[in-house]
Predict the structure.
Amino acid sequence: MLIPHQPLSDGRQAKAALRESEERWQLALQGMGDGIFDWNVVTNEVFFSAQWKAMLGYGEDEIANTLAEWEERLHPSDRQRVLGVLRAYLAREIPQYAVEYRLRCRDGSYKWLLSRGQALWNEAAQVLRMVGSNQDISDRKGAEERVRQLNEELELRVAQRTADLEAVNRAQDELLARERSIRVQMEAAALEIQLYKDIVEKIQIGFCVWELMAEGDPTSLRLVAANPAASALTGINLQAELGHFIGDCFPQASENNRREIEAYAEVIRTGRSRELNEVHYSDHRVVPSVFAVKAFPLPNRCVGIAFENITDRKQTEAALQSRAEELGRLNAILLATTAQLDRRNQELDHFAYVTSHDLKAPLRAIANLSEWIEEDLADKLDEETGHQMNLLRGRVHRLENLINGLLEYSRAGRLKGEVVRVAVRDLIAEIVDSLMPPPEFRVEIAGELPVLTTERLPLQQVFTNLIGNAIAHGYPDGRR
C-alpha cells in the first residue's frame, strides 16, 4: 500500500494517515484468523498477538514477551529441526522462513502450526527483527493421517485376499488451506506499513478488497485493492481492474455467482466472516475453475476476499473417490471368490474322506483274511505261498498308504506336508512293485538317482502316474 505524500509541516495529519493505513492492513490480516509474532532480535523481546496466545488456549497476560516462551513449547521431536531452519534463515542460508511444527497448548496437547516469517537486516547484514504468523493446520494434518490410515487398511485387506493385486497408490486429501493474516506492532509506522504490504503482496493466497458503493445493491461492489497472487490465480490482471465494479471485473458473476456476491454484501452488513468452500467461475478469460473463498469484514463498508484455486485438488478428490469405489468392487469379488473356494474345498474334503473310508475298509478286510488263512493253513502252506501272502499284505499296506496320500493330496495348498529325505531309486522300485507290470514289460533304472529332501507324496504321485501310463499304453507296435 502506498502512503500519500504529506507536507512536512502537517505532522499530525501525516501520522493520522499512517495510522489509518496501518489499521486497515492490520484488520485485513487479522481477519484471516492467524496468530502474529514480532521478535526484536536485538533486545530478544517478542510480541505475541492475542490470537497467537488464544490459539494455544492462553489469555492475553499468561505468556511473557520472551523467545523462551515459544521455544520451550516446541514438541521435542520438532525442536532441533525448527531451530535449525530458523538459524539458517537468519543467516540467509535459505531464502524464506516457512516451517511446520507442533506447539504445546495450555491443556498439554499439541497443535500443528504452519509458521511463516519475514526478517529485517541492517546494512551490516545483522538481523534486527522478524515478523511472522502461525496458522493452525491441525485439521489438515489430521486429515492427512486419516487418509494414510485408510490407504494402509485398504492395502492390507487387498494383500490378505490375493498377492496378485498391486499396491494401492496412496493419496492424501488436502483440506482447504486457512487464510493467514498478520498483525504486528513495529517501532516505526512507515516500516510497519511497508512490511505489511510486502507480506500481502508475496503471500500465495489471492486477496482482494471490495467496497460497497450503494447500500442494498451487491452489484455496486467496487474493487479497491488486489495482491499479485489474486491476478495469478484468476488469470486476470486485477491491477488494471481497480476502481471497476464486480460485474465489469467478472462478467459472468452477476448471472452465475449471484449467491456469492450477495454473501459478500452480507458480510459487510453483519460484520461476520463467511467461508464459501467451493465457488465455480469461468468466462472468456478464465478457464472453468473452483475456488475456496473466505470473506471477512473491513472498515468503511469494505469486505476482504481471500481465496485459493482448488481445481486440481477437487479433481484429485474425484480420482481418489473413483479409486476407492473400484477397490470396493474388487474386494467384493475377492470375498465372493474366497467363499466359493471355501465351499469347493469343503466338498473336496468330504468326497476324499468318504472315498478313502470306503476303499480302506475292504483293504483291511483283505489283510485280515490273508492272516486268518495263513494261520488256519500254516501246516499246509509251502514257502512260496507264504511269500505270496506277505507280498499280498505288503501291497495292501502300500495301497492304504497311497489312499492316505491321495487324501493329503486333495488338501494340497492348504495343509503343509512333512518334508523328509526320499531315496528316489527306492521310491521307484516300490512304485514298480506295487503296479505289478506284465512280464513282457521291463523297467530299467539307469545310473544313480538322487536323494531328495521334499514331501514324499507329491513326488510319489508323479512317478506313479508316469510309470502307470507307460505300462497302460505301451507302444503302438506292441513293444514294451
